[in-house]
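Sequence in, structure out.
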Amino acid sequence: MVYLKSIIQGRLEFGTLKSYEKVTKMFLQRTETYYKTDVIFKFEDIFNEEELSLEIPRFVGQVTEKAFRVTTGLLGYCAQFAVAGSIRAWLINEGEVVQYELMEPQSDKGAVQSFVRGRKLVKEKGKEKEAIEALSSAIEKYDRHAQAYERRAKVNYLMKNYHDALRDYNKCISIDPSIPTSYYGKAKIHIIREEWKEAIQALEEAIKKSIALQTLYWKSRRLKADCHIQLKEWQKAAFDLKLFTNRNFEPDNPNRFWLRKCLYQYGNVLLETEDYAEAIKAYDKALNLPGVDDGIEESEILTNRGLARQKAGKNGYVKDIKDAASMGNKKAKNLLKAIQE
């Protein structure tokens, strides 16, 4: 029998005692009659009568494909009794996702339909007002709709209504603390306000609540490194940047775009910590990547590689600085003057 790694997390809200009793009766009936030992979770471990919810903060374990299929199928069925929420499940083999399941309500309940409509409108440019109206309608119909708060926060963020966005992100987190995008969105607002420590705290939660196979996990690592750099926390920045720059991103992964900039930043951080040999390696890798519109000029990388080579007592530093100066880099021009005097 083959066992694979599984990660399952999320929360479903049933809203009324009637719906909660229906779903729990169904769950118990099916587990006892059909599935028995094939369901990963026990009833008492995931159902919360006090909050009329089903909660899986995070499960990580080795399971069979059958157990994963049976469990996600049953959870998906439970989701149709819910008024809000979602459960996400991954089946992983040697670091590769072999199956991903998203279980969320798809019923004709008013709150569900308003949220589905609002979520679609969020993706349409120029439909921000309609998106907020639909998501607000979902919240009016069910005021514990965490996903509706999170999506409304996203729209408010896009409209630069940062106060309202932060309020909605915090509301989402207070209802369902397992949604990583709420922490990521909250962090971006703190970054705009230059509240670096608060941003780091939010990004740490985004990292904890996501998995390394998700794009969001690495976006959070990258932004967290930026915040540590702002605070001159070089060792902490180096930790995040080392992880990011060692990651093999697929060509279609948006994090791949930032690899060159992160290698440059990693070199700069290593320069600060006086690890000149590793800094040179980081700059070498950055220069070997194709140029992209990431805000970093090639001359900047060459200048700093020249500095790292000089401090490490390596040859080639003068050429790096000369090349950067010929590209118009002011810092390199000043360094070249100092070398030639």
